[in-house]
Design a protein that fits this description.
The complex is a heterodimer of chains A (about 325) and B (about 325). Chain A has about 325 residues and is of the alpha/beta class. Chain A has helices at about 15-20, 45-60, 75-80, 95-115, 130-135, 135-140, 155-160, 175-185, 205-220, 235-240, 245-260, 275-310, and strands at about 10, 30-35, 65-70, 90, 120-125, 150, 190, 225, 270, 275. Chain A folds into 2 domains: about 10-240, Alpha-Beta Barrel (TIM Barrel); about 245-310. Chain A is built from 12 helices and 10 strands. Chain A has a 6-stranded parallel beta sheet with strand order 5-4-3-2-1-8. In chain A, strands 6-7 form a two-stranded parallel sheet. In chain A, strands 9-10 form a two-stranded antiparallel sheet. In chain A, strand 1, helix 1 (about 15-20) and strand 2 form a beta-alpha-beta unit. The radius of gyration of chain A is 21 Å and the shape is globular. In chain A, about 45% of the residues are buried. Chain B is of the alpha/beta class and about 325 residues long. Chain B folds into 2 domains: about 20-255, Phosphoenolpyruvate-binding domains (TIM Barrel), CATH 3.20.20; about 260-324, no CATH class. Chain B has 13 helices and 10 strands. An 8-stranded parallel beta sheet of chain B has the order 7-6-5-4-3-2-1-8. A two-stranded antiparallel ribbon of chain B has the order 9-10. In chain B, a hairpin with a 2-residue loop joins strand 9 and strand 10. The longest helix of chain B has about 30 residues, at about 290-324. Classes of the chains: A alpha/beta (about 325), B alpha/beta (about 325). Chains A and B meet through helix 3, helix 5, helix 7 and helix 8 of A and helix 8, helix 10, helix 12 and helix 13 of B.
Chain lengths: ~325, ~325
C-alpha cells in the first residue's frame, strides 16, 4: 500500500496573488501549480516564470507540490516546472507512450542539471480522452520513472471527446474509469479518484458535495481526490482520513487474529463478523494509513505554525 | 514535439460526432414498399437486409435487384448500407456492393480478421464497380462476446471502420443472459461504455439505445422514447437503430444538442471570451467553472448542432426533389 498522504490536491493559479499567496493557509495536502487550463493563453509565459517562487509560497503549510503543464507546450513548460520541491509533473491529455517518453527525457535532463535526484520527480499521465484510456497499459509501462495514474478517465475533456453533457445522475464513464483504474492496479501503480458520485448541479464549490465525494471514495478504499475550490479541502481531508471507529475496530481485529494465531486457528468471529487473514491485513492497512495521516497532519501543523510566526506583524 | 497549430491537440478536439447518423432504419429489399417507406421515414440512414431466396441463385438474384433497391432506399436523402454476415461475407459483398451505398454493416463478428477480410473484399469491389477507392465504410453490429472482447482490435483493423451498433438482444443471447428486461439496472452498461469508448478512440462512433428499450425494442410512448434517447445520448451513443417508425423523429431531435443547449453554448463562448479579454482563464456561470475545455466543448457542440441542421436541410432538399 502506498501511504503517501495526498487526500486532497487543490489546483492553484500562480498568476493570481489572491489564490497563490493564501493557498498555504487552506490546509491542503497538495497544491497543483497550474500552467494549463486555468491560465489564459496570454498569461502562460508570465505564469511559467512564477512557478519557482510559487513552490515556496504554496508549500509553507507543509503541502506537497505538483505542477500541471500544457500538452502542446511540453518543451516550453518543463524548464519552468522542474525544480527542487516539486514532487510530480502532471501531463494532461496523455494519449501515447511517446507523450510520456518525451516528457520523461526532458525531466531527466533537467533533474541532472538542477541537482535533483534523477527519476525522483513523478510523472502523472492525465487520461482525458478515449484514446488515452484504451492505451493506458502502454502509457503506464512506457518510462523507467515512478508514475502515478488517474484512478479513472473522466472529466471535462473526456466529456468533450465522447460528445456528452456532463453532470448526469448516472456514471457516464463506466468502462474508461474501470479500465484505467484496473490497469494501474494491475501494474501496482498508485491511482487517484475513480468512484462515481453524482453532481447534477455541476458546481465545484459546495462543501457538502465534497463530503459526499469523500464518503464514496473512503468506502471504496480510495485515499486521494482533487479539488477546484478551497471549500473542498477540509471535507476531503477529514473524509479520507481513517476514523476513530475504524482505528478502534482495526485494533480489535488485530488483537483477535493474534489470539486466534496463538491458539492455532485461522478464522474466528468478532461481533458477528469474520476475522481472518484478509481482515487482519486490512486492519493493518487501516492503522498504517491512520499513522500516515497523523504524521502528515502533524507535519502540516508544524509548518503552519512556523509560517505564521514568520508572517510580518 | 511542439504543437502544430493546424493539428488538433488531441483526439477530443476532432470533429464530433464523426457522422450525423441519428436514426437508422432497417428495411428488406423484398419489401414492396421499400422506396415509399424509406422516403417517408426521414431516417438519416437505411440498412438494407437482403434475404436469400430459397431455390434460386441468390447471388444473381440480389445482383439484379440491388441497384434499384439502393436507389429506392436513398429517395429521402438517407445514407444507404447493406447488412451482411461474417460467415458468407465474400459472397454477400459480391452480391450487394454497388455504387450508391455508403458501406456495409457486418454481423457475427468475433475477431479483427473478420474486418480485414471484408476490407480486402471491398478493395477489389470498389475497383471493379467504379466506386472511389477506400470510400466504403465498415460498421460492426456487435452481437457476440468475441466482438466485445476484441473491440479495440476490431475497430483498429481497418481505416474503413466507422461505427459499432449494439445489438442488445443478440448479445444477451450470445452471452447466455436473459433478454427480458427484469433488472433494475442495465446489465450491458459496462459493455456499452466500452464500445462507445473504443469506437470514439479510433475516430468512429457507437450506435445504441438505453436500457430497457435497447433490449426490448418495444413500441413505447413518445415520452418514454424521448427519455431513453436522452439517456443514450448522455451515455455517448450518437444514434440508434429504430425498430419503429415513431422512433425516427425522436432520434433525429434527441441525438443532437437541443436549442436550449445551443443557446447555453453561445453564452459560454461569449462569457469566456470576455474573461480572456480581462486576462482570466476561468470564469463562473451559475457556479459552474468555464475554462478552456468547457469553451472548446461549447464550440464543438455548436458545430455539431449546425451539422445536424445541415443534415436535416439536405434530407428536406432530397424530399423536394422527389416531390418535383
Amino acid at each position: 500500500m502506498n501511504n503517501r498522504v495526498a487526500r486532497v490536491s487543490m489546483f492553484v493559479t500562480p498568476t493570481n496573488p489572491r489564490f497563490i499567496d493564501k493557498a498555504w493557509t487552506r490546509g491542503g495536502d497538495v497544491y497543483i501549480l497550474d500552467i494549463e487550463d486555468s491560465i489564459a493563453p496570454a498569461e502562460k509565459e508570465r505564469c511559467r516564470t512564477l512557478i519557482r517562487e510559487s513552490i515556496q509560497k504554496a508549500n509553507k503549510g507543509g503541502a506537497s507540490i505538483y505542477v500541471r503543464i500544457n500538452k502542446p507546450f511540453v518543451d516550453a513548460d518543463l524548464p519552468y516546472a522542474v525544480w527542487p520541491g516539486v514532487d510530480r509533473i502532471m501531463l494532461p491529455k496523455t494519449e501515447s507512450a511517446d507523450d510520456l517518453r518525451h516528457a520523461h527525457d526532458i525531466i531527466s535532463r533537467l533533474e541532472k542539471e538542477r541537482g535533483i535526484p534523477v527519476g525522483s520527480i513523478e510523472l502523472y499521465p492525465m487520461i482525458e480522452s478515449t484514446l488515452g484510456a484504451v492505451n493506458i497499459h502502454d502509457l503506464l509501462t512506457a518510462v523507467p520513472r515512478k508514475l502515478s495514474s488517474m484512478g479513472g478517465a473522466g472529466g471535462y475533456d473526456m466529456a468533450m471527446n465522447l460528445g456528452i453533457e456532463m453532470f448526469a445522475s448516472f456514471d457516464q464513464y463506466a468502462w474508461p474509469v474501470a479500465y484505467v483504474a484496473l490497469a494501474a492496479m494491475a501494474l501496482d501503480i498508485e491511482a487517484t479518484g475513480g468512484v462515481f458520485v453524482p453532481n447534477t448541479s455541476g458546481r465545484v464549490d459546495q462543501g457538502d458535495q465534497a463530503a459526499t465525494q469523500a464518503a464514496a471514495l473512503h468506502a471504496a478504499g480510495v485515499h486521494h481526490s482533487g479539488a477546484l475550490h478551497p471549500n473542498f479541502i477540509q471535507p476531503l481531508v477529514q473524509g479520507l482520513s481513517a476514523t476513530t471507529d475504524e482505528i478502534s475496530w482495526a485494533n480489535k481485529v488485530i488483537a483477535e487474529f493474534d489470539r486466534l494465531t496463538d491458539a492455532g486457528e485461522s478464522i474466528g468471529m468478532l461481533d458477528g463478523k469474520v476475522v481472518d487473514k484478509y481482515e487482519y491485513d486490512r486492519a493493518l492497512r487501516t492503522l498504517e494509513w491512520a499513522a500516515a495521516c497523523a504524521a502528515k497532519d502533524a507535519y502540516k501543523a508544524r509548518a503552519m505554525h512556523r509560517a505564521k510566526q514568520e508572517q510580518p506583524a | 514535439m511542439q504543437h502544430d497549430a493546424e493539428k488538433p491537440l488531441f483526439v477530443g478536439e476532432k470533429p464530433m460526432p464523426k457522422y450525423i447518423r441519428r436514426s437508422v432504419l432497417a428495411l428488406s429489399i423484398d419489401d414492396a414498399q421499400l422506396g415509399e417507406k424509406a422516403y417517408a421515414s426521414w431516417a438519416d440512414a437505411i440498412i438494407l437486409d437482403c434475404p436469400k431466396q430459397a431455390g434460386r441463385d441468390w447471388q444473381a438474384d440480389l445482383k439484379a435487384r440491388m441497384p434499384a433497391a439502393i436507389h429506392a432506399a436513398a429517395k429521402g436523402g438517407a445514407e444507404v448500407f447493406v447488412r451482411i454476415h461474417r460467415d458468407c461475407a465474400a459472397a454477400e459483398l459480391d452480391a450487394t456492393v454497388f455504387a450508391g451505398i455508403v458501406g456495409v454493416v457486418l454481423t457475427g463478428v468475433t475477431a479483427a480478421d473478420d474486418i480485414s477480410a471484408v476490407a480486402k473484399g471491398l478493395d477489389a469491389l470498389e475497383i471493379s464497380r467504379g466506386i472511389a477507392s477506400g470510400a466504403l465504410e465498415i460498421d460492426v453490429e456487435v452481437d457476440t462476446a468475441g466482438a466485445v472482447w476484441h473491440a479495440l482490435a476490431i475497430a483498429r483493423a481497418s481505416e474503413r471502420f466507422g461505427a459499432f451498433y449494439v445489438n442488445e438482444a443478440a448479445l444477451c443471447r450470445n452471452l447466455g443472459m436473459q433478454s427480458a428486461p427484469r433488472l433494475a439496472f442495465d446489465p450491458l452498461e459496462y459493455i456499452k461504455s466500452q464500445l462507445i469508448t473504443v469506437a470514439t478512440a479510433v475516430g468512429g462512433q457507437a450506435m445504441g439505445m438505453s436500457y430497457p428499450l435497447g433490449l426490448t425494442q418495444g413500441n413505447a410512448d413518445e415520452a418514454n422514447v424521448k427519455k431513453a434517447v436522452r439517456l443514450a445520448r448522455d451515455t455517448g451513443f450518437k444514434g440508434a437503430m429504430c425498430p419503429h417508425a415513431a422512433w425516427i423523429n425522436i432520434c433525429n431531435e434527441g441525438f443532437r444538442p437541443t436549442a436550449e443547449e445551443a443557446a447555453y453554448y453561445v453564452k459560454v463562448i461569449e462569457v469566456f471570451a470576455e474573461g480572456i479579454k480581462r486576462g482570466m482563464a476561468s470564469v463562473p456561470i451559475d457556479g459552474k467553472m468555464i475554462d478552456v475545455p468547457v469553451d472548446l466543448r461549447a464550440k464543438l457542440y455548436l458545430k455539431w448542432a449546425n451539422r445536424a441542421q445541415a443534415r436535416d436541410d439536405a434530407k428536406a432538399r432530397a424530399h423536394e426533389r422527389q416531390g418535383n
